[in-house]
TrEMBL record:
This is DUF2269 domain-containing protein. The chain crosses the membrane at residues 12-32, 53-75, 81-103, 132-150. Keywords: Membrane, Transmembrane, Transmembrane helix. It comes from the Bacteria. The keyword Transcription regulation does not apply. It holds the Pfam family DUF2269. The keyword Transmembrane applies.
Length: 155
């Protein structure tokens, strides 16, 4: 049982890091983009990519591993609807998050070039930014529902 509590702690901590870092970096890049300040966008996008690499990615990996261990150790039936719905929504968030990572890399690179050359951001940057923003809604919304399912285990 001692292992269960350590894994539960890791699961809760990684969920907090995953959601908190994701929401925080999204907020800062979203607001930097709204400022229109190319220098600020370049700096913020640089650190958003780093934060997702250093914090969000490990947390995304820890979540399903720790969740599977807790399900097994606690004896929850794998055929429970809340388990499958959680996995489906986690997958939806992941399907949204992977292109977001790619978009962030491209946006960071475009912002760096624009900042160094004292130029405006290209139109492609703003097309990518619209997609990046749109993908955030189903990803974060899905995770909010996953957290509710994890706490309530309704069915």
């Amino acid at each position: 049982m001692e292992y269960y509590l350590w894994v539960k702690w890791a699961h809760i901590l990684s969920a907090t890091i995953m959601f908190g870092t994701g929401l925080g970096t999204a907020f800062y890049l979203f607001t930097a983009n709204r400022s229109g300040n190319v220098q600020a966008i370049a700096v913020v996008s640089h650190w958003v990519v780093k934060a997702d690499t250093w914090f969000t990615t490990p947390a995304v990996i820890i979540q399903p591993i720790s969740g599977a261990l807790m399900l097994y150790w606690a004896g929850f039936p794998l055929q429970s609807l809340w388990v499958w719905l959680s996995l489906l929504l986690y997958a939806v968030a992941g399907v949204c998050w992977l292109p977001v990572l790619w978009l962030q890399l491209k946006m960071r690179d475009m912002a760096q070039v624009a900042a160094q050359s004292h130029a405006a951001l290209p139109e492609r940057y703003w097309r990518y930014e619209k997609g990046w923003t749109a993908l955030g809604f189903p990803a974060f919304g899905g995770l909010i529902v996953v957290y509710w399912l994890m706490v309530h285990k309704p069915f």
